[in-house]
Amino acid sequence: MGILSAILALHSIMMGKIAKTFRGNSKGQTLIEVLIALAILGIVVVAFMTALTTASRAIIVADEHTTAESLARSELEYVKKQGYNFTVPEATYDIIDIPSEIGNYVIKGLKKAGYDANYPDGMADPSYVNSHASDNIIGVFWNTTLGTTSDTDTGIQIVTVVIYHKGRENAVLYCTDFKVNR
User: Fold this and answer.
1) What are the pLDDT digits (tens) for 26-47?
2) What is the CATH number of domain 50-180?
3) Cα separation, 175 vs 107, whole angstroms
């Protein structure tokens, strides 16, 4: 029994020293330490939530632009399939029907006034595009030599499709292509 008592006494002395080492001289955390820890945690949570919100907005914008681009391409292909219209000075073409599953988008064209000497730089301003938008897709005779509109049929028309998201003032996307008389 003497050896077992000695081992138990040694064990309790060692455990007491180990516990004291880990405990240190402090008997507990102070209020300041807790507040600092909460402040750091708060900063990390706010940074994480901000990053999450930004990523979510970026996904929404990317989805909107992808849908608008798909609609613009579809409309331009639809215009190319239609017969060449010789109406002077602006030939009108049909607009595709947008399925309800796609969302709240509107397809418009750009009037002849939208094609000026600064083309296409003049269309960089959203208010410029908005003020020249039309409810029809419009083909305007185009002089390829001068790079301007023409009053006579040159066998080529410039067509611009403008995509709007319902409820928004500015265009989401505009896309320009040419229709050729073949």
Assistant:
1) 566 788 888 999 999 999 999 9
2) 3.30.1300.30
3) 11
